Amino acid sequence: MGLPGLDSGSGMGCMQFCSKDIDYFNPGEGQNVEVCDKDQVYQNIFSFTNYLRVKATTMDPALIYQNLDTCLLGKADKWYTEELSYIQHVGIQMNTNGVKKWYKALEQHFRDLPEKSLVVLKTCYYIIQDTQQNQDVLEYIQSIILNDKNSSTTISNYTQVLLVYEHIDGSLYQDFPIPTKNTTMADFIQIFYKKSHVWFNIYKYQGQTQTQEGKSNKHDQRGTFNQFPLT
Hints:
49% helix
């Protein structure tokens, strides 16, 4: 049985809108995105709304804000059908600025407590042990960005890039350029990704060492980022 909102008939309904065209949101504490019946289901609200922002640039935004309710599952569907008033329904489905109203309503209701994300940000670092385990740097970056947004820690692209940079173990800084105000997140990710493959080759034979000689006390408190799953 497929997910709700899918057109299982002749396909005529999909000429206008299909829920699977923008995927689904079902808040949870498992994987950030899971696959169900070949459809993507987002569990983190900021991942979902970021995805919607991109989607709104490639399709008619009106199709999104008028039909987004069909993409809500579980607690999100219950919130929409049982907790929102008729006026709120009209506001997010009929307003020409409806997509932004959806973002705001969903993020306000389903974001984690800021304190929870702050704890993750204080302990989540990309360290040598992560390179030894070939941990994906994109997962680390996503974890930092999502928890940063949830806690409203940074206010600009530069401070967000700097936050990601500062959560990399100091032992990995060699030949890693310090971000400037002109460094975009896309540029930083590209540099980080290339460096990570160098680190994988350098550290893969050095054992599962989490602490390095000469680290400061602050570094000694750092934990491998994959100990803190996205919620």
